[in-house]
DNA sequence: TGACTCTATTGGTCGGACCAATAAAAATCC
DNA sequence: GGATTTTTATTGGTCCGACCAATAGAGTCA
């Protein structure tokens, strides 16, 4: 059968510049902290205009691969990547309609279940202390009626829990999903009751006792009620 | 205590253009398929040069938010995002040393465990058929001694399994991790034995029987041996 | 010595020109 | 009249050359 040929993107010069620099990073030739030649030199050695080089550099900057700084000893420095981009990608995919709220919250529930189990096994006293401090802070904000400020603290709870797995990738994955969740939470508005706080204290007790099944049960129950709430609220404010 | 202030990025005009367009997308004012005014018009209405607008548009293009096409009725069209960017982000973070191989494979193991459990409950006959076909194809390539071609088929197995969860976000998360794994696999080279294939047939049998615990056990065993193998190989070729 | 100024380097922006791709409109041919 | 070819207007892609803005180091002066 006739195969569907590759889309065959136009060969933009700026893309070729971008690709070549990317390859040097991938091959390890360019490493974090290294400095690229000035734009004018790059333009000359690539045999293209400065504008083309700039477009490439700006694209690289956007993906956290390089950071540009002006000035005498400035230039384009190889960066360390940007974990936040993962969350940005999801947010974009959601905003543009490529993923649904249901899929997001479902995946988040599964991920959080896993995280809870791992955290149960690995959380240190320091982790538990950080989680407790987070709930205390949330309670303080609730009493101060700063409901919207409370949202970010509540979100941070999940990131702290992910951190208790002591796995950087898991922290990033959870962080990405929570980035999107943050939008929902702010749209829905901050809760005015202390049910979440009470649930979290119960959860932390289970976690401290290393009772994974009980902790997961507590978490699941809370998240599922939250899912229903978000779904109702977002349905009331269609964004498309 | 004195808070660490925000890094305070310079206010580049091209960034402001980028931000404004992004905001219109986030607010829902610009939706997938819409067309932006031509660069020249944008430049005029923003009161900046065409170059500044171009840089912004190229950045947006890189993140899949818009796609640019030349020609009479061309222009900048709002896209649908690019799921591949999540994988790219991880690859960059790994290449730049912000995440370790251990963290990646560990997270991957956890994710895959979850996926196996969900797939056990949700996989349709069609999903199972696709997985079986994938293993058949791998076996065919093995017999043909096309070991390197086999790698991509083996990678695809995991993506197919993720697809069996019928959750788009899970597919993306798994796809992102497998993007990075693909690099490892190609560096390590294709296996010349059929242990993986046999293990997969056993796995599929468990999956078809909806025996989640057995399927997870099979998967875990396989992945852990793989992890050891990658770690040894990558240690032999330090990339930094 | 110390604070200030100058200067060279490098990213950021501009404007205007031309090329390349593309689709609609116009002209041409059968 | 209809199909085909040519023209043309629109729009992204590139280039050039100039100037501005930030910055670190050298040089200067009290």
Write up this protein.
2 copies of one chain form a homodimer. Chain A is mainly alpha-helical and 240 residues long. In chain A, 69% of the residues lie in helices and 4% in strands. Chain A has 10 helices and 3 strands; from the N terminus they run H-E-H-H-E-E-H-H-H-H-H-H-H. Chain A has helices at 13-26, 39-46, 50-62, 84-95, 101-122, 125-143, 147-163, 168-188, 195-208, 212-236, and strands spanning 35-36, 66-69, 75-78. In chain A, strands 1-3-2 form a 3-stranded antiparallel β-sheet. In chain A, a hairpin with a 5-residue loop joins strand 2 and strand 3 (75-78). In chain A, helix 5 (101-122) runs antiparallel to helix 10 and helix 9 packs antiparallel against helix 10 (212-236). Residues 1-8 of chain A have low confidence and may be disordered.
> Uncertain segments of chain A of ≥5 residues (pLDDT<50)?
1-8
- Give me the Rg of chain A, rounded: 23 Å
Secondary-structure element pattern of chain A, one letter each: HEHHEEHHHHHHH
pLDDT averaged over residues of chain A: 91
- Measured between the Cα atoms of the first and last residue of chain A, the distance is 39 Å
Largest interface, with Cβ-Cβ < 8 Å? A-B, 57 and 57 residues
* Structural class label of chain A: mainly alpha
Quaternary organisation of the protein chains: homodimer
The biggest beta sheet of chain A is recorded as:
3 strands, antiparallel
Number of discrete helical segments of chain A: 10
Strand order of the largest sheet of chain A: 1-3-2
Q: How many strands in all of chain A?
A: 3
Helix amount of chain A: 55-70%
Shape of chain A: elongated
Beta-strand share of residues of chain A: under 5%
């Amino acid at each position: 059968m006739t195969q569907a040929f590759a889309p065959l993107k136009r060969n933009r010069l700026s893309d070729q510049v971008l690709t070549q620099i990317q390859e040097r990073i991938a091959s390890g030739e360019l490493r974090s902290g290294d400095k690229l030649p000035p734009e004018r030199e790059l333009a000359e050695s690539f045999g293209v205009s400065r504008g083309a080089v700039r477009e490439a550099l700006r694209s690289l900057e956007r993906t956290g691969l390089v950071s540009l700084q002006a000035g005498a000893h400035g230039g384009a420095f190889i960066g360390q990547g940007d974990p936040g981009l993962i969350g940005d990608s999801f947010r974009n995919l959601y905003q543009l309609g490529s993923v649904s709220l249901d899929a997001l919250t479902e995946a988040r529930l599964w991920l959080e279940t896993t995280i809870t189990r791992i955290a149960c096994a690995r959380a240190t006293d320091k982790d538990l202390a950080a989680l407790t401090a987070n709930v205390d802070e949330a309670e303080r904000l609730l009493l101060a009626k700063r409901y919207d400020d409370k949202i970010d603290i509540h979100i941070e709870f999940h990131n702290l829990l992910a951190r208790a797995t002591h796995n950087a990738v898991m922290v990033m994955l959870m962080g990405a999903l929570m980035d999107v969740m943050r939008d929902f939470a702010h749209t829905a508005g901050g809760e005015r009751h202390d049910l979440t706080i009470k649930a979290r204290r119960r959860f932390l007790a289970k976690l401290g006792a290393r009772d994974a099944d009980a902790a997961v049960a507590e978490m699941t129950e809370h998240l599922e009620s939250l899912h229903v709430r978000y779904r109702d609220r977002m349905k009331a404010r269609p964004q498309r």
